[in-house]
Design a protein that fits this description.
By secondary structure, the chain is α/β, with parallel strands linked by helices. It is built from 7 helices and 6 strands. The strands form 2 sheets. It has a 4-stranded mixed beta sheet with strand order 2-1-3-4, with helices on one face. The mean pLDDT is 88.
């Protein structure tokens, strides 16, 4: 077996390190991937379940109409209200009678898809999907909302819910939203 000199070993190690750095750069391990170009809107995600040919989560370039969702999932018959716009993050439950119910996706699905949870609608299990919010903190958030009514702003968490400080609020803020009062059910 051939032995390499110290100089040759150094060159081999240097080339190996450069190769690893190049591969890490290609895999975006050293820097985040670039942001999408300006003008590219984020996708709208809608979940469909019930007696449809293709249940699942679908991506649309903009919030779709119920007719678009109905067709994409292969729901039977015609959509009851073809032109109704379905907001991103919604779950359309098709009923056996050909009707539908509209609800929000689970908190885990919303977080996975990069969509925020509505602080005034999410239940404790949904809030637990937010990084940094455990079962006890989620319960305190829901308890406060039930006793005092809907949150007016996300900063209300730090002022009114034990366990929220400025750092935790900073970490959870990107994962939460407040629907306009007219949109709350």
């Amino acid at each position: 077996m051939r032995r390499f000199s110290v100089t040759q070993q150094g060159v081999i190690l240097l080339l190996g390190a450069l190769l690893l750095l190049w591969l890490a750069g290609r895999a975006h391990l050293l820097r985040p991937p670039p942001a999408p170009p300006p003008g590219i809107a984020p996708l709208a995600f809608v979940e469909v379940n019930g007696p449809v040919a293709r249940p699942g989560v679908y991506a649309f370039p903009r919030p779709p109409s119920l007719g678009d969702v109905w067709q994409r999932a292969g729901a039977p018959g015609a959509a009851p209200v073809r032109d109704q716009i379905i907001p991103s993050g919604s779950r359309v439950e098709v009923t056996p009678e050909g009707g539908f119910r509209l609800a929000a996706m689970s908190g885990a699905q919303l977080i996975t898809l990069g969509l925020p949870l509505d602080l005034n609608r999410a239940g404790a299990p949904d809030l637990e999907a937010v990084p940094g919010i455990g079962p006890e903190l989620a319960r305190r958030m829901v308890d406060y909302r039930q006793r005092h009514g809907p949150f007016k702003q996300i900063d209300d968490l730090a002022d009114n819910v034990s366990g929220f400080g400025p750092e935790k609020l900073r970490r959870v803020r990107p994962h939460l939203t407040l629907a306009p009062p007219g949109d709350r059910n």
